[in-house]
Write a structure and sequence with these properties.
The complex is a heterodimer of chains A (about 775) and B (about 70). With about 775 residues, chain A is an alpha/beta fold. Chain A is built from 32 helices and 19 strands. The radius of gyration of chain B is 13 Å and the shape is elongated. Classes of the chains: A alpha/beta (about 775), B alpha+beta (about 70). Bound molecules: iron/sulfur cluster (3 copies) and zinc ion.
Chain lengths: ~775, ~70
């Protein structure tokens, strides 16, 4: 990822755009934070927000004519927030909290002619910047036309307070000055820049101020002259916040003028601006504005708190609301991409974001939800590719999953054959590695059904589509797997593929577009389903689409049609179809971050209080592992003879899945293709006796029973192991590939009792090397 | 983790030599890093013991640290 890609990605996530109120505020007061402070009963915090942006909060906070209010999002569901009334209440109840710093004195002299609010603001902003400012007014005090307001609207003391503040920032005040044409000409001659506050200074006094100032910069045609404030362009309305805006805008221009830089560059975000903020309000209850008990006095503290509580705190975070991964890492895509970028930029030191990058399920839910189609999965997947390429991919993240894939693609599990007794295939059933691992019997039953119903020969192919390699960022390995797959189907005469797994389907659609593919579900939906044996469950089930079926609409419709034909009562939840969650397997999340994988499964299963129905074997097993009752759709189409409730089937776990695949091949060869049977390796003959507890431990530690068999086999072969004379247990370590496994076992007449097993990746000088 | 010692009394004995284990210094390696640590081993044939507490504790920590380097 380069800077440009980073910026392009950042730009698509609008979470950091201004909320609607702030964008419509001419000086961008952080209304959202202000409301949060008030709603939490923290007046000081609310006041701090005003102090940060508003000049003279005592004045502006009391008098702002709230042009922001019509833009408040709340207005779409009830009344907009009473923004200025709340500001008024806040400044009435608090003393200043924040005093902004004064920058070191700089050169440049500025005269502000006229003491209205725009002149005061310009003087304040320039004084804070360290400029030498003199404010001259003919009036007795500051305030311009605001001086005529009644005490109830603005306490008299606000003006001397403002004068003291200005003097605190080094502004020289000349009140009750004799402002003649000559005096003004003199000010112009002796200062680098002059600002005319048109609230007090009319064109008769200053001929050059009669010209319209440039609306963007407020610069007058005459060099060094600037003007603003007073009535609006149509000379009819006087807006308090407009005075502030003009004063601030002019101060910024003068600052640039003194620095001799462009007066116009990059000023589009100043003043009222547009925002791309996206805030979803569906489902929110409407609410009316709170009228103070005594409208003349305004809000009490409690009333202010209540009214501010109506603020929605406009933001987006639509993707985060659904995604367990973004929630876990407390990021939204804009912050996520920065962390990823920084992680990649590290040359020496710890790459703290590695695990985060490997924890995204690559499910694509965020892309569908986001108003700008944020491509987080693309980002995380291509970053993983970079990590692999640069040698920065932590081996432990994906080793286990890739070994598992390797096994699925090994001689022990793969098969690619025409239907027995035929020499050509019109169709080829591809159950995928996960269905084979989860429920080999179902594969056999489904295959027998298809072979019996379809004409022209139905071949069978066992293997893995290679998606784990793709998710792990292992492009060469993935490409190799794809090539092998293509060669295999070509050898069988390029039959139409029937895929049971949405992940396989998504991979073949993208990388093997030359093949004819139909999903098992569309195929089953087009056939007459087996009769008699099928039985719908006696309860309502919630259907869980897998995340990889997000863009497979016809497939999803077929699944629903099949459920209807089976007479099942199905309900849908909100995060289904295009919005489906991942079960934790996607992107190898559950391997890089097992704890988060568990959370993802729990989140998906918990979307409904009903028991679940999945049609992805991995979803089925992961949701079951999270302690939920969930069945696979095939369990109802091709029920097992033993009458076991499909909702009660437990998660087979990694070892069983592994073995199921090997056993499936054995069983199929024995029953359908006896001529091609193969031998099992020697260590597979070792009988293990493992308690439920130890099985769970093995599963959580990613240790397969086959690994345990290998350790024991090796110990028996070499005689190298430890013994504990106290209890007769034996302990041995062995490294079949990259990981060293240690097993504590006890030989008995029935087999080996397994007491414990653990592993490490660090290499020892001796054990098994 | 160089210089660390994982010496502790242990009931495990070498099955081949029928000898109790004694402390020894070995080099562990991972991703181009080498650590000299003390482990229990058979004094005759060098058969090593990596206890569960070490594999699931300090070793795992160091492995993960190195993987993110
Ligand atoms: S949905 Fe997520 S990625 Fe998209 S704009 Fe909102 S916060 Fe950003
Ligand atoms: S609801 Fe709150 S954050 Fe949203 S626009 Fe209104 S005041 Fe601003
Ligand atoms: S791809 Fe899925 S897991 Fe990753 S950020 Fe998007 S929604 Fe979350
Ligand atoms: Zn020995």
């Amino acid at each position: 990822m380069d800077q440009l890609q980073l910026r392009a990605f950042e730009n698509r996530c609008i979470q950091e755009e201004l909320p609607f109120c702030t964008a419509a505020c001419p000086i961008h007061v952080d209304v959202r934070a202000f409301m949060a402070g008030l709603a939490e009963g923290n007046l000081r915090e609310a006041r701090k927000v005003l102090d940060r942006t508003m000049p003279f909060p005592e004045i502006v906070g009391r008098l702002c004519d709230e042009p922001c209010r019509p833009f408040c999002k709340r207005g779409e569901i009830g009344d907009p927030l009473a923004i200025s009334m709340l500001e008024r209440a806040c400044v009435g109840m608090t003393a200043p909290v924040l005093k902004l710093p004064k920058l070191p004195a700089k050169g440049g002299t500025v005269a502000v002619v006229g003491g209205g609010l725009s002149g005061m603001t310009a003087a304040l902003d320039l004084g804070r910047k360290g400029r030498k400012v003199t404010l001259v007014t003919a009036a007795e005090g500051l305030g311009g036309s605001l001086r005529s307001l009644p005490e109830t609207m603005l306490p008299r003391e606000a003006f001397p307070q403002a004068a003291a503040l200005l003097e605190g920032y080094g502004v020289t005040l000349m009140l009750a000055a004799d402002l003649t044409v000559e005096r003004i000409a003199d000010l112009i001659a002796t200062h680098d820049a002059v600002y005319f506050d048109r609230d007090e200074i009319g064109p008769q006094l200053v001929p050059q101020a009669a010209a319209q100032p440039d609306p963007l910069t407020l610069a007058l045609p005459a060099e060094g002259g600037f003007a603003g404030g007073g009535l609006g362009e149509d000379s009819s309305s006087f807006s308090v916040i407009k005075q502030v805006e003009d004063g601030r805008r002019a101060a910024l221009t003068i600052e640039r003028y003194l620095q001799k830089v462009s007066l116009t560059a990059q000023r589009d975000k100043e003043g009222v601006c547009t925002t791309r903020m996206h805030t979803v309000i569906t489902g929110m209850a409407s609410s009316a504005v709170l009228i103070p008990a005594d409208p003349a006095l305004g809000y009490t503290t409690a009333e202010a708190q209540q009214e501010a509580g109506r603020c929605i705190r406009c933001e987006c975070l639509e993707c985060v609301k659904q995604c367990v991964y973004l929630q876990e890492y407390k990021e939204y895509p804009k912050t996520l991409v920065r962390k990823i970028y920084n992680n990649q930029a590290i040359v020496q030191g710890t790459r703290n974001a590695n695990r985060m990058i490997n924890s995204c399920s690559l499910c694509g839910q965020c892309t569908v939800i986001c108003p700008h189609d944020i491509p987080v999965p693309e980002l995380c997947r291509t970053t993983r590719q970079d990590m692999v390429r640069n040698g920065h991919m932590p081996p432990s993240a994906h080793d286990f999953a890739l070994e598992d894939m390797h096994f699925s693609l090994s001689e022990s599990c793969t098969l690619a054959r025409h239907q027995p007794g035929t020499s050509a295939s019109r169709f080829l059933f591809y159950p995928g590695c996960q269905l084979a691992g989860s429920s080999p019997e179902t594969v056999v039953r489904t295959y027998r059904f298809l072979a019996g119903r379809l004409q022209g020969g139905v071949g069978l192919m066992l293997g893995c589509c290679g998606i784990p390699a793709r998710w792990a960022g292992q492009e060469p390995l993935f490409a190799e797997t794809m090539d092998r797959f293509k060669a295999d189907i070509a050898r069988l005469g390029n039959p139409t593929l029937i895929t049971a797994c949405s992940s396989c389907l998504s991979i073949f659609d993208e990388f093997c577009s030359e093949a004819e593919i139909v999903s098992l579900w569309e195929m089953l939906d087009s056939l007459e389903l087996p009769t008699g044996k099928t039985q719908a469950p006696g309860e309502t089930l919630t259907l869980h689409d897998p995340c990889t079926a997000r863009h497979q609409e016809t497939l999803r419709l077929s699944v629903r049609s099949i459920c209807g034909k089976l007479g099942m009562h199905i309900v849908e939840h909100d995060c289904n179809g295009p919005l489906a969650d991942c079960c934790g397997y996607g992107g190898l999340m559950q391997f890089a971050n097992p704890q988060l994988g568990g959370k993802a499964a729990g989140m998906k299963a918990g979307r409904s209080e009903h028991a679940g129905l999945a049609y992805c074997a991995m979803c089925r097993d992961n949701l079951a592992a999270s302690g939920h009752r969930v069945a696979h759709l095939l369990d109802y189409i091709f029920p097992v003879a033993d009458g076991q409730n499909p909702l009660a089937r437990s998660n087979p776990g990694f070892s069983r899945r592994h073995e199921n695949r090997a056993r499936l091949k054995q069983d199929l060869l024995n029953s359908l293709w006896p001529e091609a049977a193969v031998l099992q390796p020697e260590h597979r003959q070792i009988t293990l006796l493992i308690s439920r507890e130890v099985l769970d431990l093995l599963n959580s530690r990613h240790i397969l029973e086959e690994d345990v068999q290998k350790v024991i086999h090796q110990a028996n072969q070499t005689g190298r192991y430890l013994v504990n004379p106290g209890n007769g247990h034996q302990l041995a370590g062995f490294k079949p590939v990259r990981v060293t496994y240690w097993v504590e076992f006890e030989p008995t007449s029935r087999g080996y009792v397994i007491h414990n097993a653990y592993s490490h990746r660090m290499l020892l000088p001796e054990v098994g090397q | 983790m160089s210089g660390y010692s994982f010496i502790e009394a242990t009931p495990w004995q070498c099955a081949g030599c029928r000898l109790p284990l004694t402390p020894t210094t070995v080099s562990l390696t991972y991703l181009n890093s080498v650590f000299n640590v003390e482990l229990m081993a058979c004094p005759r044939c060098g058969m090593l013991l990596v206890p569960e507490s070490l594999a699931a504790g300090r070793m795992l920590e160091v492995e993960q640290l190195l993987e993110d380097k």
